[in-house]
Amino acid sequence: VLPSARAVVEAADRFARVADEQRAGNAAVLRVGLSPGVHYRAQSLVQAFHARRPRTRVEVREASTGTLVDQVAAGELDVALGFCVPHRADVRVKHVLDERVVVAARADHWLAGHESIALGALADEPFAFVDEADGAGYNETVRAICLTAGFVPEPSPSSIGPMAWETAVAVQGC
């Protein structure tokens, strides 16, 4: 199973400063980055945080996981939620949860009629990876899991740019 949700990228010093500002009665700002796939989980977390710390303004920015990690390292974000976060020496990464893996296929694809399928059955199918520049951690995780099933996944030729895998599924039938 693909352990997608490999991370909450933490900036511990910034959280301590935000907490100190709150204790002192000052308004604080928490800069949060979200990768596109975490919105369904993150919305409730942001609301719960705001309920506990109503004087903290939460600024949310969306970008790919790789970009968010770069922004945390540069001090542009305090924390980020992403999938399959690559480990870096200058950013603290914490694994929070694993997500179920699903196969996305066009309605006319042979996979569309299956409730479940063994990973090995996908060996001859093209895989729609995300842009390598922004999603290397995700792509590495998918490759590693496929290797455990005995095959190397063949990437779609359109695995570049924003929304790469969504485009590959819709346009190329991956």
Core attributes:
35% helix; two-stranded parallel ribbon; 17% strand; single chain; 174 residues; alpha/beta; 5-stranded mixed β-sheet; 5 helices
Q: What is the beta-strand fraction?
A: 15-25%
Outline, from the CA principal axes? elongated
Helix content: 25-40%
Distance between the termini: 19 Å
Main sheet: which strands, in order across? 3-2-4-1-5
Structural class label: alpha/beta
- Output the number of helix runs: 5
Low-confidence stretches: 1-12
Compute the CA-based radius of gyration.
Answer: 18 Å
Succession of helices and strands: EHEHEHEEEHEH
What is the number of strand segments? 7
* Mean pLDDT over all positions: 79
The main pleated sheet reads as: 5 strands, mixed
Write the layout of secondary structure elements.
Elements: E1 7-10, H1 12-23, E2 28-34, H2 39-52, E3 56-62, H3 65-73, E4 79-82, E5 92-94, E6 126-127, H4 132-148, E7 154-155, H5 164-172
Parallel strand pairs: 2-3, 2-4, 6-7
Antiparallel strand pairs: 1-4, 1-5
